[in-house]
Amino acid sequence: MAFSLLFTLGLVFAGPAHAGGVLTHNNNTNNYNNNNKSNNNNNTDNNNNNKLSLHWAPFTFNAGTVCSVDAGICHSWLHMVLMATPSDGNVVQSLVGGGRFKIDETALQDGRSLTFERHLVIGACSRTNRSDCLYLGPSQKYDFGWESQTQMPLTDDGVPSLPDGLPKSFCLEPWMVAGALGVRGSVATLPLTCVDFRAPELV
């Protein structure tokens, strides 16, 4: 092998601060539907015997807004984690991914690249319930993140207030290409998946 394998295969354990779900997630209720796991990998092309599939990492979706009255700024963020699983178990091959996203009721637009988290895993479990696990086989772990800053308007008394138009939901439609298997084959996708933002927090 041309380079040293520096990663240890293992399970991803997501903390309670990232409690979430698959396909549609509400941060206020932390409702994860295990029945959606069957929809989590319906995403490979059929043109290659060695297929690539994508899977959401359960319990990892997180979206929120924190507003600083002193700074007069609101910071909004979104974090989603997924795993890419080649059917032949070759997790050291080159993968390239991205996604289309929309915020609230806006149109879908192309987003940034998926970020490789430098983890090789075999699945994901909830840290609060390690008996609830999704086993996939050797996989690469990726995330998609988004963030924005919004200035807080001042009231007539000069006090910063919550701005209109803070994000309420974020939807992502990810894709991944396995370069080593050929660009025309091995394209994996997941259906549009949405995360609800928690109510803004004032600090």
UniProtKB/TrEMBL annotation:
<keyword id="KW-0732">Signal</keyword>
<protein>
    <submittedName>
        <fullName>Uncharacterized protein</fullName>
    </submittedName>
</protein>
<feature type="signal peptide">
    <location>
        <begin position="1"/>
        <end position="19"/>
    </location>
</feature>
<feature type="region of interest" description="Disordered">
    <location>
        <begin position="26"/>
        <end position="49"/>
    </location>
</feature>
